[in-house]
Amino acid sequence: MENVIDAKEYNEFLEAIRFVYGYDFTDYAESTVKRRIFHFMTGRKIEDINTLGKILLREEAVFEEFVKELSVTVTEMFRDPLFYKSIREKVIKRLATYPFIRVWIAGCATGEEVYSIAILLKEEGLLERSIIYATDINPASLESAKQGVYALSAMKIYTSNYQLAGGKREFSEYYRAKYDSALFDASLKQNVVFSSHNLAMDKSFNEFHLILCRNVLMYFNQRLQDRVLELFYDSLCPFGFLGLGDKESLLFSNKKDQFEETDRKQKIYIKTK
């Protein structure tokens, strides 16, 4: 499928997007980007990447749809519940020692992870003195995250995840059902700041006690992974925690010696240097 897009045309396409819109996809995993470009072209019956480029540079609304296609992630509340259980058991105790807690959820997508962490902090009595920065490259995803409305049909699996993650209440207490949707309690997002942030280009904007960036680095090449991990290192306070996805690791990072494993299996690290 990648053979459909010529290498020279592909590079020129990405450079044009970076020049006009400031979005840099050049260090994203090439196979993933090409696959999603092809999917976008197929769905809109666009025959070649040059035609696609002209449309995107001319029509900003279509470009927003394109960004959504490129940055789509599969997510759910309390996804990989044992990760959240480990946060509850191995990270929360140290976070509780701070008078004020700053959490950054980088690549928050449509917000399921944001509400998961908010619920966890609430149950541990820490939400009121926490601020959660939820960032993503995709404006449409951020808007969905702000709304906090999810399919009611997903609540069964979310409830199961929550219970396996060590949830202390009835999960249904956190949302109310309306038609086919579940609207999550507004109190969960009172201390959340939703904001656009491009991991490929933007800099650190605060110092954090916990950074979660799960199942995002896997879409980047090694160079961009190194850049992002450098960004996270610079953004963490001493002995701050970093949580990655189950297919991600610090193993090949030049920052690996600055972290120690808090939970090897769940990919939770603490900054030690």
Please describe what this structure looks like:
Keywords: Methyltransferase, Transferase. GO terms for molecular function: S-adenosylmethionine-dependent methyltransferase activity. InterPro entries: Bact_Chemotaxis_MeTrfase, CheR_C, CheR_MeTrfase, CheR_N, SAM-dependent_MTases_sf. Strand 9 (259-263) and strand 10 form a beta hairpin. The chain has a seven-stranded mixed beta sheet with strand order 6-2-1-7-8-10-9. Strands 3-5-4 form a three-stranded antiparallel beta sheet. The chain has two domains: 2-70, Chemotaxis Receptor Methyltransferase Cher, domain 1 (Orthogonal Bundle); 81-271, Vaccinia Virus protein VP39 (Rossmann fold, 3-Layer(aba) Sandwich). Helix 1 (7-21) runs parallel beside helix 3 and helix 3 (49-58) crosses helix 4 (60-70). It contains nine helices and ten strands. The protein has helices at 7-21, 30-43, 49-58, 60-70, 81-95, 112-123, 139-147, 155-164, 222-235, and strands at 101-106, 130-136, 149-151, 175-178, 181-184, 192-196, 208-213, 236-244, 259-263, 268-271. The protein starts with 6 loop residues before the first helix and ends with a strand. The mean pLDDT is 93. It is globular and about 55 Å long. It is an alpha/beta fold and 273 residues long.
Task: Give structural attributes.
single chain, 273 residues, alpha/beta, Chemotaxis Receptor Methyltransferase Cher, domain 1, Rossmann fold, 2 domains, 7-stranded mixed β-sheet, 3-stranded antiparallel β-sheet, 9 helices, 40% helix, globular, methyltransferase, S-adenosylmethionine-dependent methyltransferase activity, Bact_Chemotaxis_MeTrfase, Chemotaxis protein methyltransferase CheR, transferase
